[in-house]
Design brief:
heterodimer, A: seven-stranded mixed β-sheet, 13 helices, B: alpha+beta, Ribosomal Protein S5, domain 2, five-stranded mixed β-sheet, about 30% helix
Chain lengths: ~290, ~100
């Protein structure tokens, strides 16, 4: 949506915010009416065994919703991370649910019954309370994703407001197509982590304008790291997902364009701090796909 | 973190199980299922210690109006009594509809 339509009060009020929905509601809102079916839902009580041991209240679905249904009439599975629970972090159980779903989608694709896979990521990455198990979970997710993406397109949506950081930012970047809103952020390290490690002069985690100018959806889209920039609206996001799947499996994934990125990185003048506008100019010269 | 259980008499059956809420800051998740006996059982797991008396009052009040034989599980992440009541009523409405 452009600026003019944003300023149209009728359009603005008719919007249904996606960001305001929790993970389960997001999944329901994207699937065609009456097709939603949840696998390993809260009543299966696949909770984290590690959180209560450390005095942390678990969630009955471990913060990962696996929803089957149809998007635009086609078989789909949505893997939605609940960003409000433990910062959407990946634990042993939530990670295993995601990996298992990706592996089943792979099996379906190989058996000639391809299923559209949508990832809704709102996550800070590994769940620190589960340490190595969380790290391993992300390694397994990424491994399964790379196997699957050769056979079927995988669409990732980062809507906000948690954003997508840590190991899960790698997951997002491995997907065939990435959709972001202006409110969303994508980065390997979150702002607080960078400030903590390198000092406030390097990155001020309290400076929202700075943060979004580096990791925000608009910048990520302008620099070619995200394929689509959409407004925070359920229908707009759903249409965007359908459009992305329509393009099919990319001939060459962004994460495979290693030489090109290395060449461009080597050419950057690092004698001064780049402004976000310069970064846009630099990366927009890249030929995508 | 604290965990405790409470029991209440019941006279109605739960029509269907229901799940509402998220274990996020200031919120809670409520799971309602039919209980196996003719009583209501509530298990509370809360991130905030020392509010047992408040929980008792909130639940006593809720069960003065809700009489279903339900097994209720609550995972609380610092919700206020008002939020707890609203979530319970939301779950109860779905379980009886």
């Amino acid at each position: 949506m452009n600026r003019a339509t944003l300023l149209d009060p009728g359009r603005f009020l008719a919007r249904k915010s996606f960001i305001e929905l929790n993970a389960r509601e997001r999944s329901q809102s994207l699937l065609d009416d009456g097709t939603y079916r949840e696998l390993l839902g809260p009543f299966d009580r696949l909770e984290s065994p590690w959180l209560p041991m450390q005095g942390v209240v678990p969630q009955a679905d471990d913060g990962l919703i696996v929803a089957l249904g149809k998007i635009g009439g086609k078989d789909s599975v949505i893997l939605a991370v609940e960003g409000q629970f433990q910062g959407g972090s990946a634990g042993e159980v939530s990670g295993a649910k995601m990996t298992a779903a990706l592996d089943l989608a792979h099996e379906d694709a190989r058996n000639g019954r391809p299923i559209q896979v949508v990832l809704l990521l709102e996550t800070g990455g590994v769940r620190l309370q589960e340490a190595n198990l969380g790290l391993e979970a992300i390694a397994e997710i990424n491994s399964s994703l790379v196997t699957l993406r050769r056979h079927a397109a995988i669409v990732c949506v980062i809507a906000g407001m948690v954003g997508c950081f840590g190991g899960m930012s790698i997951t997002a970047s491995l997907c065939s197509y990435l959709i972001m809103t202006r409110e969303a952020r994508l980065g390997l390290n979150g702002p607080e982590v960078i400030e903590e490690m390198s000092g406030i002069d390097e990155f001020d985690a309290g400076d929202r304008q700075l943060i979004w100018s580096v990791t925000g959806g608009e910048q990520r889209h302008a620099t070619g790291f995200a394929d689509y920039l959409v407004e925070d609206d359920v229908e707009a996001i759903k249409q965007c997902i359908i459009e992305a799947f329509h393009r099919g499996v990319p001939s060459r994934n962004r994460s495979e364009q290693v030489e090109g990125y290395l060449r461009d990185l080597a050419a950057i003048d690092v004698s001064h701090q780049l402004e976000s506008s310069e970064v846009r100019k630099l990366w927009s010269k890249r030929e995508n796909r | 973190m604290e965990k405790f259980t409470l029991e209440y008499p019941a006279s109605k059956a739960v029509r269907q199980r229901a799940h509402v809420g998220v274990v996020g800051s200031g919120d809670l998740e409520v799971l309602i299922e039919p209980s196996l006996d003719h009583k209501a059982h509530v298990t509370v797991m809360t991130s905030v210690d020392g509010f047992g008396k408040t929980w008792q009052l909130v639940l006593d009040r809720f069960f003065s109006r809700y009489h279903a034989a339900a097994a209720i599980e609550i995972h609380d992440f610092g919700a206020t009594p008002g939020t707890v009541t609203l979530r319970l009523e939301q779950a109860a409405e779905r379980s009886l509809s």
